[in-house]
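Lab notes, practical 5.
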Amino acid sequence: MSPLRPLADHDTTRALQRTGVSAGGPVFANLTASQLVTEALRRDEGRLSSDGALLVKTGVHTGRSVQDKFSVADPEIEADVWWRMGNQKLEPAKFEILRGRILSYLQGRELFTQDLYAGADPAYRVRVRLVSTEAWHTLFARNMFIRPTTEELVGFEPDWVILHAPNLQADPATDGVRSTTAIAVSFTQKVICIAGSEYGGEIKKSIFGVMNWKLPEQGVLPMHCSANVARTADGTQGDVALFFGLSGTGKTTLSSDPNRPLIGDDEHGWGPDGIFNFEGGCYAKVINLSTEAEPEIYAATHRFGTVLENVVADEQGRLDLTDGSLTENTRSCYPIEFIPNCDRTGRAGHPKNVVMLTADAFGVLPPISKLSEAQAMYHFLSGYTAKVAGTEKGMGKEPQATFSTCFGAPFIPRRPEVYGKMLAELVKKHGSDCWLVNTGWTGGAYGTGKRMSIQHTRALLAAVLDGSL
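Output from the prediction step:
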């Protein structure tokens, strides 16, 4: 039995019923991080590292299941969606079957709910409710999204609901999906169904897809980028820098700069008043992480409250961050305030520098290039880069050259030109300088050349940001 009293009052129960969930078992609503760690340990979902981080394994899925991502093809939105592999059509009737199976699965089980925000700008934020069977995934979501105050939780009504059943297998014969894994989004009903994958990144990226759908209609460009800001002598915000790039190309690492407060490490919007973070946490790739190269991320990885996905540790819980035996895509999920030099507002002005990170697997591109507006749009829309080992299911240890439009093709539900046009207009309006930075290989392709060092890339970026380059 749990040492915690189920925290579902009548309001929570009624709120769950409005989302279709009939909670026949205990419901733990809006637990704190320490309470969720306690529950995860009680349920044998993971164990603690010697530093107190929660070690978990995600089973067969150690990266995103791109081929199992679906959007519901409702007639009113079908023409506006960019359909392709990674955003396949799911018939509305099949979605109802899948959702019904998940709701039946949830009924009578211990449930964990967490009410959260996506979007640091109140004018554009989305209220999200996660309903999960797992404590550690709930902690993951609590770490990743923006945590409301106690006052904001009173009467909280979600705009979007995530029904999360990672241990329920989807049924291709009845659910209309490809395999036993399904990540299905209904933009009209504002419901996300996740079944058959324990990988935490599916939760975060599903909401990123929601923001990519919603914000262009409000005049805000959603971006797969990290961001930081200079601090002036009087303590106010200075110039802002964006870092576009696919997972594993250096967004988190390069934006975590002890001299520039971090706005966010992965997802932002650019609107009339500047930029804002979508999230309240970081999801850092930690294979071969070192305290010398990435001291802030290293410290955050060794803290209570952090979730470590597929990170190897010995019997005493001592981490081996060089061990990729489970996956090269080892991850650390922690609240952004674990980075001492972060800007807790999650907001800043218009960017002075827009940096596009490309992991060139062929070793052809120079370490850094300044781009014209036309060149910047070409690189943004072509998105030449490499998929870094392990970030998607089925990848081996070698990087794979790819063209990922907008540096985030798996996450954009609308056609690329929607986002490209918005970026072009914003760069021109605000006079932003654009740069292409190769964080991949030099002196030859993968296997012949060598990977660009973080220290060298940091030095180049420092010269860009201080205006000396």
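Observations recorded by the TA: The chain has two domains: 10-44+64-217, 221-281+339-465. The chain is about 25% helix and 25% strand.
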